[in-house]
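Q: What would this chain look like folded?
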Amino acid sequence: MAAVFFNGLILLSDSALSADERPNILLLLADDLGFSDLGSYGSEINTPNLDELARRGVRFSNYHTAASCAPTRAMLMSGVDSHRAGVANMPESIPSDQRGHAGYEGTLSRNVVTVATRLRDAGYHTYMTGKWHLGKTPELLPSARGFERTLAMADTGADNWEQKPYLPIYSKASWYEDGVETILPDDFYSSAFFIDKTIEYIDSNIADGRPFFAYVAFQAVHIPVQAPREYTEKYLGQYDAGWTELRKRRYEGAISAGVVKDGIEMLEISTTEDWSSLTEEQKRYESKRMAVYAGMIDAMDFHIGRLVTYLKAAGEYEKTIFIFVSDNGAEPTDVLDTAQPLVNLFFRVWMTANNYNTDYETLGEKGSYSLIGPSFASSAVSPYSWYKFFSGEGGMRVPLLIAGTGSPDAGGVVDAFTWVTDIVPTILALAGVKHSRGDYRGRPVEQLTGRSLLPLLDGSSANVYADDEPIGYELGGNGALFKGAYKISKNRGPIGDGEWHLYQLIDDPGEARDLREIEPEIFRTMMQDYERYIRENEVLPVASDYDQRKQVILYGLKKRLGGAITFFAGFLVLLALLIIWRRTRAGAKTSSR
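A: My prediction, written as structure tokens:
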């Protein structure tokens, strides 16, 4: 099926596309945005530009991604399972016994062809701005993976105001333009600058009449959560009732928005603190942290509106298809948690050295370091359970908007199960670009595993996956498998119980009722499906003591200190031997007296 223009709208048909009928395609990716963080998904946050796209287009209420950024981005660019695409886990999180094995390189494999390469070879201009996180050597940057112009940040994240790292694991923030290290401007703010560059790149070639594919990967709302003061101030006081009350309000908002059914049982996440146990000063501070988060989303939406305004003025708006997604659920990590005194002390020392502060008055502004922690993260993913890193719906189910296709269901909601690998075949179908199975331009490559979503957009089908078709997933030992209405999932400790559970997601997307003992045959069959997924995708086991946060720290220390760690470890061993030797000698002298 292909897309064809008619009276300024893109209709869906089986006919081929002529050169002047091909649409522009704009892929907008938010970072760590929860399911209910947009107005059109039930949020109190002001997102008028994305809400207008939702009104013109279609919202998906059952779209899933990996629960961590790099695996999602690998699938979003390739249409191939993350283990086959080389990014089974974030490179910073891969344990030493997995590193280097097939699928565990942590960078986008050469055995996959990016959507940018396919569109570029079909005559599209291709542009990328924002977070890449799929490799930072010259042959791995987006400038070498099909993008014609790029402004890329190659790490897991970075400061939104300055060119500096956001975690101690990096010695610098890695920014590149067209494959060459670059310096950010003095007036840099991430969302604004990404849109500035996107407009610059589009405008540089707009006169030649060729369509463009632009990929804008925002840092909003990844940590550090930062926003201009005027955006944060809109939300001061709005979160004074706390995270539990916000989670309830978001649930009601999602019902009103039509993306969640009424009557869902909503669990309280175990990591959510008792708001009433906080002091008034603590409540005031936590409330502002969430206000900064809301302001960062609001600012992202504002700058998306600037891009829309540009496209309208350039006569390209009606020719453009908009796809907006998040890479995973909300981020729960709180590196400032005083319950972890050693980590907290180390991080605060590092922050001081890097001119970061956590002052209330300037929270979110230049030099500030803010985040929302697990309690407000549970509100951002409402009404679902878990959040980023975990295989619960709160970590994997996120917003997806597609606008500009002329869908007869404009303003409506699609509740069919959809998966992140579906985005590439959908883009190719909308662009009228055919793809072969298992080869590209004469060389073998991983074949696309996703499905085009066009049948859902034009109303010709209610589903793109059959009820008996399993879709598996694994990341850092957490796992899931979807099949029809059912899902099995496992979350490792210390928060998860390390056990597999069975849920029926149509009636229980809140994952409140484990059906493992009630439906043993379904559970057994789905576990067999999962074992098959493990074998076919060469998924490696994870050690029982694997801890993602510790792994990230070890990775960073090794990268930054290199041989110094080996030297220091050797020094400690020699020191220990010297102490033992001296104590042995002292003991021998004492016994001889």
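The longest strand covers residues 24-30.
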